[in-house]
Specification:
The two termini are 38 Å apart. The chain is an alpha+beta fold. It folds into 2 domains: 70 residues, Orthogonal Bundle (Arc Repressor Mutant, subunit A); 168 residues, GAF domain (Beta-Lactamase, 2-Layer Sandwich), CATH 3.30.450. It has 10 helices and 9 strands. It is elongated, with a radius of gyration of 22 Å. It has a 6-stranded antiparallel sheet. Strands 1-3-2 form a 3-stranded antiparallel sheet.
Length: 264
């Protein structure tokens, strides 16, 4: 007989599959649609929905089923007290585990002139780079800052470039506004970017966007390591960083339908 000790009961898997489908269907879903999503007979799904409706996790409106108030209350309790860094940390941990490099999350400051590091997971190598929580960097010289700047409306980008002092953090920092515009255009098109020794001497960083439930850029997911190691595995690490960005976006409720990732 097959070992089923680690296999959840079918009903449990179907409950979560139904709730996940409804979470991605703001207009609701019919019984037949849910049966297809759950891959179960309509009679079985109907019994599950009745149980969920009795507990307030599902409501029926005409032929459509939607998430009920208890589902939203549960989601609120789960997220209460957790910041965005804690929510996406599993994606950071997975990225650092597979690459051996430091991963992190940085957000735009309120005035949209700086990036702020709010979470990181250390790499496994004895030679590594680690940001400080609360550390700030200007937008033009780091991978995360450039990526987030590229995703701002054109008028905001123009205002930033017109007023910002593009000072060099290292001898390799790009300070030409025309060159920076080309970099931002590529970052917006590709939804990732990379820097090599431009922000911190000897450090390279790859950045992918993290989108929230409203499909708006919430922050930049970063992979940080020595220039030599990052260059040696550039294609692989960029793909893994982009995949981690999608994973983090899903943790925030994004459908990841916002465009191309290198990791797709």
């Amino acid at each position: 007989m097959p070992d089923t000790r680690n296999t959840p009961p079918l009903s449990v898997g179907r409950i979560f599959a139904a709730l996940q489908h409804l979470a991605g269907a703001p207009a609701g879903a019919t019984l037949s649609e849910l049966a297809g999503a759950v891959a179960a007979p309509t009679t079985s799904v109907l019994d599950l929905l009745r149980g969920l409706a009795d507990q307030g996790y599902v409501v029926r409106e005409g032929r459509a089923y939607r998430l009920g108030p208890e589902a939203y209350l549960l989601a609120g309790r789960i997220l209460a007290g957790r910041n965005i860094g804690q929510i996406v940390r599993p994606a950071l941990e997975a990225l650092s585990a597979v690459t051996g490099e430091t991963s992190g999350l940085a957000l735009l400051s309120n005035d949209r002139t700086e990036m702020i590091h709010i979470e990181f997971v250390s790499g496994s190598s004895p030679i590594r780079f680690e940001p400080t929580i609360g550390e700030r960097h200007t937008l033009h010289n780091g991978a995360g800052g450039r990526l987030m700047l590229s995703l701002l409306p054109d008028e905001e980008v123009d205002r930033y470039l017109a007023s910002a002092q593009l000072a060099k953090s290292t001898p390799d920092t790009v300070t030409s506004k025309s060159r920076l515009k080309d970099i931002l255009a590529a970052a917006r098109r590709d939804l990732f970017t990379a820097t090599f020794g431009e922000n911190v001497p000897g450090a390279a960083a790859f950045a992918a966007p993290v989108f929230n439930q409203a499909e708006q850029p919430a922050g930049a997911l970063l992979l940080i390591g020595p220039v030599e190691r990052m260059r040696a595995k550039q294609d692989l690490f960029l793909n893994l960083t982009c995949k981690a960005g999608m994973d983090a976006s899903r943790l925030l409720g994004s459908s990841c339908r916002h465009g191309h990732f290198a990791g797709n």
